[in-house]
Amino acid sequence: MLEFDSGVVESLSSEQAHAELVDAWLGMDVQSCESKILSQVKELYPHEQTWAHVGPRVFQTPYKELRRLCEHLAPPSGSTFADLGAGYGRLGFVLKEFYPKVNFLGFELVAERVKVARLAYERRYQTLMPLHCTSLGGPDFVVPPADFYFIYDFGRQQAIDKTLEDLRSIARSQRICVVGRGRAIRDTIERGHPWLSQVVRPEHFERYSIYRT
Prior knowledge:
There is one protein chain. By secondary structure, the chain is an alpha/beta fold. The chain has one domain: CATH 3.40.50.150. It has helices at 12-26, 30-44, 56-59, 63-73, 90-98, 111-125, 157-171, 183-192, 194-197; strands at 80-84, 103-108, 131-133, 148-152, 177-181, 203-204, 208-212. Strand 6 and strand 7 form a beta hairpin. Helix 4 (63-73) packs across helix 5 and helix 7 (157-171) packs across helix 8 (183-192). The N and C termini lie far apart (35 Å). The mean pLDDT is 93.
């Protein structure tokens, strides 16, 4: 099911529909999980942005788009690709399938999503998925060093600002590549982080932008 023509850009709705089929093929009942999360979100995550109210089509990136992105970036063997706000870990599945020598690190706020993704990953690959349950905006969390970062609009503005400051600290000692998908993360980078948006010319695409240091 993950064997698809990644070079053809389809409509977003078509790629979202394909992604739902892949989720099901991997054994992830995303809709049922999201229904459960939505019923508990006010109790379990009263001060966090979970995006449960908009549905998984909105807050998840399609597999086809992720594979095109990886082909464009061509992450080398031994490099690390971190997904900050990973949802159901779709990037982890794409990397494991097509770039098995690239390390994946995922961080997701909602424990139910992490559990579903880990179970599916373990069933398919007989190994543990490096997807961690944490609040990116929490005072005790610090973004770990990596070569590539994928950031969709994962949370509230305060959490996005904190994450970008963490990345700025990392960039002082190494080169990094940051993929920003969504209006909030791209606007924040463009308006408030010239160290990332104005030193090396970004690459802008319809759904995401690529920033390098």
